[in-house]
Amino acid sequence: MNASTCTTWARALGFHTPVLAFALRTALAAFAALLLAYALGLEHPHWAAMSAWACSQPMREHLLSRGIYRFAGSVVGVAFAVGLVLLAQESIWVLALGLAAWSALCAFLGNLQRGYMAYGCMLAGYSAAMVILLHVGPVAAIWPFAWDRLLTVVTGVLTAVCISWCFAPRRRTAVLIAQSRHALAGVLQTAIATLRPHAAPAPVEMAALLSRLAEVEELLELYPEGSRTARHTSRAMHWQQHRALDLVYQLGLLQRAEVAVDLAPEVPAEQLAQALASLVQALQAAPEPQQAQQAQALRQSLQQAIAAWEAAVAAVQAAGQVVPEVLHALYRLLQAMHSGWEAEQRDLQGLRRPVPHEQRMAPLPLHRDWVGARQAAVRAGGTLLLLGMVWALTEWRLVAFGMLGLSVMLLVFSGFESPHRTMAFVLRGQLIGAALALLCQTLVWPWAQSGWQMVWMLLPFALLGGLVFAHQRTAAGAMDTNMAMFILLAPVFPQTGGWTQPLSMALAVVSGPALAWLVYRGVYPTNAQRRLQTLARMMLAEVPALARRLLEEGRPALWPGGSAAAALWQAQLHHRLLRLVRWADKTQWPARGKLHDLGLSLRAMQTVLLQLQQWRRDTILATPALRRTERLAVQALQRTAAWGGVARDPRQQVRLRSAWRALSAQPGLPPALAAQALQVAQRDIPALEALRQQLP
Predict the structure, then answer these.
(1) CA–CA distance, 671 with 667 (Å, rounded to integer)
(2) At what angle do helices 116-134 and 92-112 cross, to 10 degrees?
(3) Residue 369 contacts residue 575 (beta carbons within 8 Å)
(4) Is 170 buried (19+), middle (13-18) or exposed (0-12) by CB count in 10 A?
(5) pTM of the model
(6) Angle 397-412/92-112 helices, nearest 10 degrees?
(7) pLDDT in tens, 377-413
(8) Which of 184, 187, 204, 517 is the least crowded, having the fewest Cβ atoms under 10 Å away?
(9) Residues near 124 by Cβ (< 8 Å), separated by ≥ 6?
(10) Residue 319 contacts residue 264 (beta carbons within 8 Å)
């Protein structure tokens, strides 16, 4: 039977054929890890199989990175557990309190991280739980127990890496780079339409641009894992995204005003548009790692576009005009793309040498979900504290075992899109795993004549776990099938306790996701829609927060950080906007078509606030008119700061708009700043308030 026939049969039986090879390979790696751990004489060899499943990944770089974070998280968690057990001196109350506090801290830090760093933080939390809750005996026995945990993790990780490394492919670098270039090409096409004297693009095109950029942003989440070269490329792409959104903002302002870029007749705008069109064509070509000629063509197109921009700016300045801000934004994007070209080429060619210091990209300040992190910490810490009190009062070991499963559920899945929905799949997977474990313990292991026979009898069940992982109907939650199965299958010969003890342990394991489902439903319930609303509230709250900061500063002082702080705010706003767009696309939010206007209004208000503060700092209040303008400026800041309050007064927006409108009418304010203040009153505040009203 050839490979194509096997593939056809597997597909007909309902298996995901691309996943089947990975699943069976991982199942064999898990069994090999268990076999090696048992041969080494480790007390809990089944933990090695769990580690092998947990760190296995389809791509080589992700496999390495996840394995490193699993080991590091285990070391930190075990170290904390040992310290807590030594401190508690067999006091369950101290253990319960310390574990709850540690779990809350790990949940908080994990929800602030990205990629596998978040996994490492979560693992530190439940690794401590494993050592604390499964340790039985005197305090001095914690040391061999902790070493056993660490050695089983190392055995599982190394076995999975050694076996999967030979088969796992490298990441498909060209796919992400092509998608990023296509998104940037779309932004440049919109810029070309603005530079040429025909109609400005429709708003739907701007919304489509944001969606394409948001898709790239989501792919960048795990892209840098396991490779310094990919990390450098990821930073370059983040800068490109940031500069692209800056250009989209400037284009959006022109679109709102329904005007094109106002350039003198002698300015070679058409030449710049043609150079950008050539660059767009080069960006749309599929990147090929071995095509040096194609790479040089893209670099040449970038250099020609930058040269055409310089010629256009020189002509604007020669005509005595001010260079439009949209041209500055275009230049910053072209420079970011030129800097990113080197990083992308290194990544496409698979170069592993360290990036030269002069080519290293500074990291951008990105969005962190502080609200979600606080909620996850309260949820995990509070729930484990309550169960820990029950454990301390009853001293029932099954409560401790249930706390272990619950700690995993409340930590690992707290960052998922809809944790309570995920728990349904996890519960199903753990029920399958518990059933397989009970089948092995009651029908297969009684035939074993030695510990080695018990280990070898696990091989068919390990392979069954791989098949469950690859089947279409059981794929969701299949990881938990294998984890639950292996945590219950400890090969200890001779087997004692009858069938009641395995059944009670299985019930304790599956109680974890069942309890977690109730907790996720009742304590800070989270789903994609709520995450979107939380992120939108965070973005809206930044404008009043900035106004409060400027009021606290007072007039004479300089705002700490100056332009650097403004750039930080803009970078975070851009990243949050892309996250918001991605959530809106996933949930099909009805107001997602207005998110471009939201970004425009937030940037416009931030710009006006900072420029107003600059005017307050630099202006000498020598006349009554200037002093009145200063008083109205303070009033506008005060009402902007109050606009962020929890209570929603319908009159609040009216007072806020009237304050900005009165400020814009003052003759002491520079004309450009007065026009911007009027736009805040007429356009930006109503746009943001309309979005606020859609958030419950």
Answers:
(1) 8
(2) 170
(3) no
(4) exposed
(5) 0.88
(6) 10
(7) 999 999 999 999 999 998 888 788 888 889 999 999 9
(8) 204
(9) 73, 74, 76, 77, 80, 106
(10) yes
